């Protein structure tokens, strides 16, 4: 009989990413990220305005709209994407506040699937794996393809239940 009631490592580190996300002041989405090498936690970050600058809860969101031409099943469609440009994404902050040497061969756990910009940055960061929980369908296909090309393990943690106290409604 297994008496070990500890959480598995994926759950443990994703729980930490969700706890980190509670520091975010973003009204649209709280995102947390952690950098792990082996079983050693090397850094944490969350999404928000630059230090010393009013965040979205104080100054409101700065929404920018982008349009992207997507070809699916031979059919072209235009997809409208909205994003807040006041906020630095959790993955970007993680890369800003960790050392390259620590990132080499490491894993990033992030509450949300990285957007295209963050995926590009992660692809050049030295990490070898990205584990996420919530999908970001607008960029999934191209991000997955790029990660595969780079040889970075990219996986969604399915069946995972975040700590209840960390949850917020996500606005698209």
From TrEMBL:
<dbReference type="Pfam" id="PF00383">
    <property type="entry name" value="dCMP_cyt_deam_1"/>
</dbReference>
<feature type="domain" description="CMP/dCMP-type deaminase">
    <location>
        <begin position="8"/>
        <end position="157"/>
    </location>
</feature>
<keyword id="KW-0862">Zinc</keyword>
<comment type="similarity">
    <text>Belongs to the cytidine and deoxycytidylate deaminase family.</text>
</comment>
<keyword id="KW-0479">Metal-binding</keyword>
<dbReference type="InterPro" id="IPR002125">
    <property type="entry name" value="CMP_dCMP_dom"/>
</dbReference>
<dbReference type="InterPro" id="IPR035105">
    <property type="entry name" value="Deoxycytidylate_deaminase_dom"/>
</dbReference>
<dbReference type="InterPro" id="IPR015517">
    <property type="entry name" value="dCMP_deaminase-rel"/>
</dbReference>
<protein>
    <submittedName>
        <fullName>dCMP deaminase</fullName>
        <ecNumber>3.5.4.12</ecNumber>
    </submittedName>
</protein>
<dbReference type="InterPro" id="IPR016193">
    <property type="entry name" value="Cytidine_deaminase-like"/>
</dbReference>
<keyword id="KW-0378">Hydrolase</keyword>
<dbReference type="InterPro" id="IPR016473">
    <property type="entry name" value="dCMP_deaminase"/>
</dbReference>
<dbReference type="InterPro" id="IPR016192">
    <property type="entry name" value="APOBEC/CMP_deaminase_Zn-bd"/>
</dbReference>
<dbReference type="GO" id="GO:0004132">
    <property type="term" value="F:dCMP deaminase activity"/>
</dbReference>
